[in-house]
Specification:
With 424 residues, the chain is of the alpha/beta class. It has a domain at 3-251: Acetylglutamate kinase-like (Carbamate kinase, 3-Layer(aba) Sandwich), CATH 3.40.1160. It has twelve helices and 20 strands. The longest helix has 25 residues, at 63-87. The chain binds adenosine-5'-diphosphate, aspartic acid and magnesium ion (MG). Residues 9-10, 41-42, 47, 73, 135-136, 151-155 line the site of aspartic acid. InterPro entries: AceGlu_kinase-like_sf, ACT-like_dom_sf, ACT_Aspartokinase, ACT_dom, AKii-LysC-BS, Asp/Glu/Uridylate_kinase, Asp_kin_monofn, Asp_kinase. Belongs to the aspartokinase family. It is an enzyme of class 2 (transferase).
Length: 424
Amino acid sequence: MALIVQKYGGSSVADADSIKRVAKRIAEAKRAGDDVVVVVSAMGDTTDELIDLAQQITPLPPQREMDILLTAGERISMSLLAMAISNLGVEAQSFTGQQAGVITDSVHGKARIIDVTPSRIQQAVDAGAVAIVAGFQGVTQHTNDVTTLGRGGSDTTAVALAAALQADVCEIYTDVDGVFTADPRIVPSARKIDRITYDEMLEMAASGAKVLVLRCVEYARRYGVPVHVRSSFSTHPGTLVTDAATEEGAPMEQPIIAGVAHDRSEAKITIVDVPDVPGKAARIFEVVAGSGVNLDMIVQNVSVASTGRTDISFTLPATDGAAATAALTRHQPDIGFTSLQYDDTIGKLSLIGAGMKSHPGVSARLFAALSDAGINIEMISTSEIRISVVTRADQLDDAVRAVHTAFDLDSADEQAVVYGGTGR
Ligand code: ADP
Ligand code: ASP
Ligand code: MG
């Protein structure tokens, strides 16, 4: 008998019929003899709709209240799912993040899990019930304030619970058949990946492949939780995310390129005419960090000899654009730049593959593919197993398709199926 943690994303529980369909699947797993703990997301685009609603009340809602509001989405789906499972004659009980023992730090909107103490969940499982846990939420250690884990955070809840309960596997059920070589919504010829390493999946997630959220992959790698990404709409085997060794101890075969990821959620800030003297970059990034913003790519131009000034550009999540711009503008006099440009019409493409570190020519092939497709590259950054480029947002889809084809990733046979979801 195994203990399985299953997570169902919003598109898998979008309406009453979907909830009943998922309930059947859970009841089958339970009847097959396994212990089952389920993590559930808010129905469909509920989280986005709640954010829109708050925006209609105030443009800058207090973050504490925002978190209480957003956690309501997962409470709706968890209770409905528990009812649907009970209807099928299998006992089920739902629990909030707090009841499930998900303890976080106090950073509202993107809290980090610091501990999981799932004794209530263990009791429910020991008593023979299916435990349903609201994803994406926790509670602060000292003040008991409700927090959320950031967009897509139900994946993290699932892996964290799987680690705490020492589950045999964490199954992430979504609206595609697994992790593909590119987003199937953009590249229908993308291929499903049967196995991927934590390292490659980390880079894919960090680069925008939202099928798994970054923190969930970090957590899974740290605690060695095997993750199986699959569709709740089919019974096809999905993608297994594990470390490089297979069960037999033999190294996993590593293709040069695992996939192409894209990200439309970033913006670019260019700080114009920064005095090119020691300490200015440090000051700029201190100011940005002080506003709680995580940067991504940074580019500094060669300074203009006649003026001794230079431009510095960096990318950041567009949702942090207002905070970073305001902080930099406040410090304009002491940094000494002349102006600041904000551009949220950029896209980022990333090519990921553990094999690229030992294969020369990957960048050259990437740049040639983009140039053949008439796509201009605005910024470039690399890691050992990733190359990322910034393009215009409206050219991003074409760029992804061109690069996918250039690296021979297109599938010869069936097209990837997208079963549900709105892609929002
Ligand atoms: P859920 O609601 O189940 O959490 P998400 O929308 O968060 O689902 O994630 C699933 C979506 O991730 C897919 O519908 C797909 O559009 C997108 N996606 C992006 N990159 C990939 C990829 N490489 N492989 C599979 N899906 C991807
Ligand atoms: N409902 C949350 C979101 O839409 C969490 C999740 O779905 O993982 O981001
Ligand atoms: Mg998700």
